[in-house]
Specification:
- Two copies of one chain form a homodimer.
- Helix content of chain A is 57%, strand content 0%.
- In chain A, helix 1 packs across helix 3, helix 4 packs parallel to helix 6 and helix 5 packs across helix 6.
- Chain A binds a DNA duplex (30 and 30 nucleotides) through loops.
DNA sequence: GTTCGTTACGAACGTCGTTCGTTACGAACA
DNA sequence: TGTTCGTAACGAACGACGTTCGTAACGAAC
């Protein structure tokens, strides 16, 4: 990259070759930054999304990015909202109207959200804590609320349920992408399971009777099955637990 | 604390003043690193836990830490397990025996875990994805499994429930500490709520009917209430959702 | 008293996020 | 047409990061 830092700037440049000499250079914009950052994220992971790397992809310098984005965290928040935009949202009944298919729709929505977020490395981690308020985050929240309303759930319970569902989506997505990362890093999925199995095998049955007795069960089951079960637990639990319980 | 870096090492040191000249210097150890790291974590947050800073607290150089710890991530994993050790664990019935108080105990355990983890900044974030296998993490898992067994839940369901509960604990803890961080950063909790309220106030009722209609409800309720409700949802949902659905 | 393996550590490498002062541009105006 | 001027763009630099390397200091063993 940077050439030798020795020459401090030629006082009489032979050619005043500005970068603008290059003809068709797309204008910078926040959207362009997000696209570049997302591409790097998918290719090399969250920590590879550095300001320098994004700038390089856009054929410019890192300093130029700060015109469109306050800092790296803001850029990542924008990337997160862009990813949320990939989630297909159901059309939802109007306020006050029941919606019979709410359960199937909500199940699919949560599932899709986890899958989509999980497919983009650990980007979901940026949402843990920073209540996201991007347009796509709001649209997702609106859809979830609509489906819960269609189920006839009252306002206070719906508010709690929205938070819980959002929390579960982001957490499950982070976990899912963490697994995928590990599988891609060299160790196969099987070797990861084997390592876990070995950890349990080493445990003393006196200290950890339940863990040892469940050794086989703990490492069984695919991630998809666990995801699906978790969603059912959430839905069943929400229906069974009115606020002020 | 390094002195001025100007002199590159005197060829004939007037005093061969080694750091060992200092008399009572506690010996380094992994435990000492973890203690120092935890103190910095609590005082200044996760990102302040740098190798240099930990070394400084131990009156040594950053390079010395790598004798006891492979890298920063491993140190953070150790810190995480240390924090898990603060969680009071219930004594649990033997395998096969029912345990009538399982629900109250499990509720308290989950609540305590979230509170303890949440009290140590965003340390819980290091556990999202990296299935923790430290001694305290195993003990916590054993306790949860024991309580679930006391409830008479079958093996496959218990395995799924353990994962789900762990996921919820870590996610809820991260969120809780994120709130606390924000409150400590200057903006009070009220101003954070006010900002959120304003965000909702700006929304068009045509685009986000449910969000707008629930504006008041969404910002109501304390974090503790939300936590408690989430735990009930989990417990009710687990009971209502046997594996193989 | 000398050797030897281990622990400790200063210095350095490459990278990061971010800021600063300056340059180059294109539209507005004379 | 010629000039001005706000702003986008950028190279260089700052301070800090994780980590590695070669060397120095130590305690134990002989």
């Amino acid at each position: 990259m940077a050439k030798s830092p020795g020459e401090p700037r030629p006082s009489t440049p032979a050619t005043p070759v500005s970068r603008r000499t290059r003809p068709a250079k797309a204008a910078l914009s926040a959207d362009a930054l997000v696209s570049a950052a997302l591409a790097i994220l998918d290719a090399d992971g969250l920590e590879a999304v550095t300001m320098r790397r994004v700038a390089q992809a856009l054929d410019t310098g890192a300093a130029s990015l700060y015109v469109y984005v306050a800092n790296r965290d803001e850029l990542l928040a924008l990337v997160y909202d862009r990813v949320l935009g990939e989630i297909a949202l159901p059309t939802v009944a109007a306020v006050g109207e029941p919606f019979p298919h709410w359960r199937a729709e909500l199940r699919t929505l949560i599932r899709t959200a986890i899958t989509v977020l999980g497919a983009h490395r650990k980007i979901a981690g940026v949402a843990l804590g920073d209540v996201p308020t991007g347009p796509n985050a709001l649209a997702l929240a609106e859809a979830i609320l609509g489906l819960l309303a269609g189920a006839g759930i009252d306002d206070p319970t719906r508010s709690l349920a929205l938070d819980l569902i959002n929390l579960h989506i982001t957490a499950a997505a982070v976990e899912e992408s963490a697994y995928a990362d590990k599988a891609g890093e060299g160790q196969s999925e099987e070797s990861a399971v084997a390592a876990m199995d070995e950890t349990f095998g080493r445990l003393s049955a006196a200290d950890y009777p339940h863990l040892v007795s469940m050794r086989d069960t703990l490492t069984a089951g695919s991630g998809d099955e666990r995801d699906a079960w978790g969603i059912e637990v959430l839905l069943n639990g929400i229906l069974a637990t009115p606020a002020h319980g």
